[in-house]
Design brief:
Elements: H1 20-43, E1 45-47, H2 57-61, E2 95-106, E3 123-136, E4 139-155, E5 162-180, E6 185-200, E7 205-210, E8 214-222, E9 229-236, E10 239-243, E11 265-268, E12 271-282, E13 310-320, E14 326-327, H3 329-333, E15 345-357, E16 361-370, E17 380-392, E18 396-406, E19 409-415
Parallel strand pairs: 1-11, 1-14
Antiparallel strand pairs: 2-3, 2-19, 3-4, 4-5, 5-6, 6-7, 6-8, 7-10, 8-9, 9-12, 10-11, 12-13, 13-15, 15-16, 16-17, 17-18, 18-19
Length: 416
């Protein structure tokens, strides 16, 4: 890896002067460079772009295409309308609830999460999602917690010295949603905050970054009764995490870097996603009006068919916004300005879900294109697969497994 600390923190050399006048002129010539360097320090932001799908096991199995599905705890991170929407698998009681957990293990010693191409990659990368919701009549509310953490080895020239940094990022969300027009329209919002920590395990120092508690995302779902399709919209605001802890971050002397420059912020860019779901085969109805103890007219009888094997298709298109003066995480650690997020990027996702054994086994498969945020580099294509197996407990539980593979990337997900 080629490194040049001057990329982020140029330090002028003082030329020897023969005359006082030359010294003054030399100093004046360096003033613009010093000002520019200081501006770079202040303006740099770490661009945190979640290109790979790190959501629920159902989302991963479907290639990330879940915005237009928006049902259950598996969808609420991607579309907050899921906090209130009642899928065909849920009961008809006035009060209902849902809870889920997904754990991720990014397999491999050189996983390249952000496609920066930096040698060494990420080590021991893992993540989890935990969420739940309560539904009372047409209203729904719930909580969602997500965590991403990994270790990054940064080596000096010739690999004489290796420093291990730990990065962790948590997001906490409170969701509220409601059904409208007899359940054919659903709108939801998620409020929350995010926190990130970069720690040097050798020196015991860290940088703490945190955002304000604010509206994070909104979601809308259109699910016309007894029709085989749904359409969803998800809008996520950008998240700006600013320093909340130590005033300096002590790094080991890797290539004489010394203390690492603290960036102005950790920035998660905004996203806008549109998705759809369509029931290709089977007697099972995709959409229905929640009865909630009410009787329905005879012409709604078709929507009450909630059993039978089926084949469901989903697709999403997601646009991600830019990050002003953005650099990658590894670029920050090596103090190399590896520019990231200069323009908008687009991801296309699709998936299929089928019930092979009625009431017992669901299988999924999908794929998606992950755009690259770094200048001069190309994106990559992911292929995903997964399944759910029903576990006969007190409630309707399922054990889920999903996998996501791409160039320099492989992820296993286990959940319930």
């Amino acid at each position: 890896m080629s490194r040049n600390p001057a990329n982020l923190s140029p330090s002028p050399t003082h030329a020897g002067s023969l005359l006082p006048l030359l010294s003054v002129v030399s100093a004046l010539l360096w003033i613009p460079a010093l000002v520019a360097a200081e501006e770079v320090k202040e303006k740099v932001q770490v661009d945190v772009f979640n290109g790979p799908v790190l959501s629920s096991q159902r989302a991963v199995g479907l290639g990330g295409a879940i915005i237009g599905l928006a049902e259950g705890v598996a969808s609420q991170l991607d579309n907050p309308a899921a906090f209130a929407y009642r899928s065909g698998q849920m009961g008809e009681e006035e009060f209902d609830w849902d809870v889920g957990f997904a754990g991720f293990d990014l397999v491999g010693s050189d996983v390249d999460i952000d496609m920066s191409g930096s040698p060494g990659g990420y080590e021991k990368a893992a993540a989890f999602q935990l969420g739940g919701n309560l539904k009372w009549g047409t209203l729904g509310c719930g909580l969602h917690i997500s965590h991403l953490g990994y270790r990054l080895p940064i080596s000096s020239a010739g690999d004489q010295n290796t420093v291990y940094y730990a990065w962790s990022q948590q997001s906490y969300g409170l969701g509220l949603a409601s059904l409208f027009d007899d359940g054919q329209w659903v709108a939801g919002v998620m409020l929350g905050f995010s926190h990130a920590t970069m720690a040097n395990k050798d020196t015991g120092t860290s940088v703490q970054m945190a955002s304000d508690f604010e509206i994070g995302s909104i979601g809308i779902l259109w699910a016309p009764t007894a029709r085989p399709y749904r359409v969803g919209l998800s809008i996520k605001r950008s998240v700006q995490m600013t320093q909340a802890g130590a005033s300096s971050f002590v790094g080991n002397l890797v290539n004489d870097l010394g203390d690492l420059l603290v960036p102005r912020a950790v920035h998660v860019p905004w996203t806008v996603g549109v998705g759809g779901a369509y029931m290709l085969l089977g007697r099972r109805s995709l959409n229905r009006s929640p009865r909630l103890g009410r009787s329905l007219p005879i012409d709604h009888a078709q929507e009450l068919v909630q059993s039978g094997r089926y084949l469901l298709a989903t697709a999403d298109v997601v646009m991600t916004g830019p990050t002003e003066d953005g650099i990658g995480i590894q670029g920050w650690l090596t103090q190399i300005k590896q520019v990231s997020g200069t323009s908008k990027s687009f991801a296309v996702r699709s998936g299929l879900e089928a019930e092979l054994i009625e009431g017992w086994l669901l299988v999924r498969g999908g794929g998606y294109f992950e755009p690259n945020r770094f200048e001069g580099r190309i994106g990559r294509l992911h292929w995903t697969a997964g399944f759910d197996v029903k576990v006969p407990l007190m409630h309707d539980w399922s054990l889920s497994l999903a996998a996501d593979g791409a160039r320099d990337y492989f992820n296993l997900v286990v959940g319930v």
